[in-house]
UniProtKB/TrEMBL annotation:
Metallo-beta-lactamase domain span: 123-323
Top-rank taxon: Bacteria
Stated name of the protein: MBL fold metallo-hydrolase
Organism field: Pendulispora brunnea
Length: 396
């Protein structure tokens, strides 16, 4: 290569490098507040006293397995149906739907992904609300949502008399959304979060006296409702430098007459049987079924293992969640619900398939409408997801 060509290539490499640095700098500036805040002082000291805090971060009893080469291979063979090509049918939330309590005492409304409005024995709980256009710290990049939010901060206050608790499972962007928290920071509600996550909320303007941080198996009370923080097998982090410095969790909601379980994000792990034995049986189990891959089998349940988890926690009605809103994995967008239905039928488990925005009461005939399109998807035999370090085999 002659001197002129070498000089030309050096200029190109420098220009590309400068553009990359500029893009990183713009992203850091734009997302700085949304990245959240580290835990300090008494909050940090309490975290470090947790039996799950080891060597400067939280740890799962069964570590997460990741296969980088399999990830690359699966990425190269990703489904061409990862996102919908037509608008997803949703149901509007009328202003009078929540004017009265559900006759059965238990009603759920799926708002998309892991966001649920749970009405249980006179209390209202909102789980993992994420209402921004993207699951991202910035507005110009990151996974876009497939339909507009069915509730927003002003609307929810107009349509609902009160939200007793906003419950957050962990601090990943599709579960803890900066814009949503800022919009509801002045609500007269209690924010229930795992250890350390309160640092983000306080940084974004939520009053400390309305933040309740819990370790696994700890609980808090809202009138006669008990909220128990349950173990999960997952991770946390909003930047490259804070991985697992906040805890992740699921929750059990225990009312006077009913019990509900919310898995958050989790892989399959033995302690799910303990959750069922100590806190179940549950009238309803909200379990994540989407955003899975064989390359990271411990991060998410996947459909078949969600059915196994339903058995382990002693659920009666299974509610699939964590699908149908974002493109976060390599499978087709309808594959999670197709496989969950097939697995539930084999296991003879009651399962519901509500549209986003649809309310249902577990004590009534289940909602089972096939509202999604019929597109190709891989079966459990074609693309199995099996968690590691489980003492017993899971359902095939």
């Amino acid at each position: 290569m002659n001197q002129r060509k070498r000089s030309w290539w050096r200029r190109i490499v420098r220009a590309v490098g400068l553009l990359v640095l500029l893009a990183v700098a713009l992203t850091v500036v734009a997302g700085w507040t949304a990245f959240g805040h580290r835990a300090e002082g008494a909050r940090r000291a309490r975290m470090e006293r947790s039996p799950h805090w080891k060597n400067g971060h939280f740890a799962n009893p069964q570590p997460l397995d990741n296969d980088a080469w399999l990830t690359i291979r699966n990425m190269a063979h990703a489904s061409p149906y990862r996102s919908p090509t037509q608008p997803i049918p949703t149901l509007p939330v009328p202003s009078d739907r929540f004017a009265t309590s559900p006759p059965s005492g238990l009603r759920l409304t799926w708002l998309g992904h892991s966001s649920m409005l749970v009405e249980i024995d006179g209390h209202r709980i909102l789980t993992d609300p994420a209402w921004s256009p993207r699951a991202s710290p910035v507005t110009f990049a990151g996974p876009e949502r497939w339909f507009p939010p069915l509730l927003t901060a002003p609307i929810v206050q107009e349509k609902l008399p009160v939200i007793d608790a906003v419950v957050i499972s962990h601090d990943h962007y599709d579960h803890l959304d900066y814009g949503t928290i800022v919009a509801m920071k002045d609500w007269n509600t209690t924010f229930v979060v795992p250890l350390g996550v309160g640092a983000h909320l306080a940084y974004w303007g939520v009053a400390e006296d309305r933040i309740v941080e819990l370790d696994w198996w700890e609980s808090t009370h809202i009138r006669d409702l008990t909220i128990v923080c349950t173990p999960a097998r997952h991770a946390s982090g909003r930047t490259l430098f804070d991985n697992d410095t906040k805890l992740w969790a699921g929750y059990a909601f225990i009312g006077a007459q009913h019990r509900a379980y919310f898995s958050g994000d989790t892989g399959l792990f033995p302690l799910m049987s303990d959750i069922g034995a100590r806190l179940g049986p549950f009238d309803v189990a909200m379990l994540e079924v989407g955003e899975y891959d064989a390359a990271w089998p411990d991060w998410h349940l996947g459909p078949e293992q969600a059915v196994e988890a339903h058995r382990m926690v002693r659920g009666q009605l299974m509610v699939p969640m964590h699908w149908g809103l974002f493109n976060l994995a390599y499978h087709g967008w309808t594959e999670p619900i197709e496989r969950a239905l097939a697995a539930a039928e084999r296991a003879k488990i009651d399962i519901v398939t509500p549209k986003p925005g649809q309310s249902f009461e577990p004590g009534l005939p289940p909602v089972r409408e096939r509202w999604w399109p019929d597109i190709p998807w891989r079966t459990a035999d074609q693309a199995p997801v099996v968690a590691t370090q489980m003492k017993k085999p899971v359902m095939p």
